[in-house]
């Protein structure tokens, strides 16, 4: 495959980071999709994943985020926009 994408549920918190680490080790994940950022999950797990990813020889980017249940709610991830929305 050209890409190995891992879809993670933001509501899983620390478990999502563990999943990213273990799936990356087993499969060589090349990108992430973080879903369920629409409810109580504010996406703090993205900060932990970003720190882990920076330690990799080749960082694992977040390509998309899901902010709802419809296809239109899947958005291209922008770190700048996400940080601004998170911090208000």
Describe the fold and architecture.
- Helix content is 39%, strand content 20%.
- The chain has 88 residues and is α/β, with parallel strands linked by helices.
- It has a four-stranded mixed sheet, covered by helices on one side.
- Strand 1, helix 1 and strand 2 form a beta-alpha-beta unit.
- Helix 1 runs parallel beside helix 2.
- The protein is globular and about 35 Å long.
What's the structural blueprint in terms of helices and strands?
Elements: E1 5-9, H1 14-27, E2 31-35, H2 44-54, E3 62-66, E4 74-76, H3 79-87
Parallel strand pairs: 1-2, 2-3
Antiparallel strand pairs: 3-4
Helix pairs in contact: 1-2
Strand content: 15-25%
Spatial shape: globular
Tell me the helix content.
25-40%
Elements, N to C (H/E): EHEHEEH
Low-confidence stretches: none
Distance between the termini: 38 Å
Question: Care to give the gist of this entry?
Answer:
This protein is of the alpha/beta class. It has helices at 14-27, 44-54, 79-87, and strands spanning 5-9, 31-35, 62-66, 74-76. A hairpin with a 7-residue loop joins strand 3 (62-66) and strand 4 (74-76).
Q: Could you list some keywords that capture this structure?
A:
alpha/beta; 4-stranded mixed sheet
């Amino acid at each position: 495959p050209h890409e190995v994408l891992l879809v993670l549920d933001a509501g899983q918190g620390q478990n999502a980071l563990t999943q990213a680490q273990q799936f990356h080790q087993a499969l060589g994940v090349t990108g992430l999709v973080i879903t369920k950022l629409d409810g109580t999950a504010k996406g703090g797990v993205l900060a932990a994943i970003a720190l882990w990813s920076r330690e990799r020889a080749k960082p694992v980017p977040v390509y998309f985020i899901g902010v709802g249940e419809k296809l239109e709610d899947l958005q291209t991830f922008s770190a700048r926009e996400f940080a601004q929305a998170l911090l208000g």
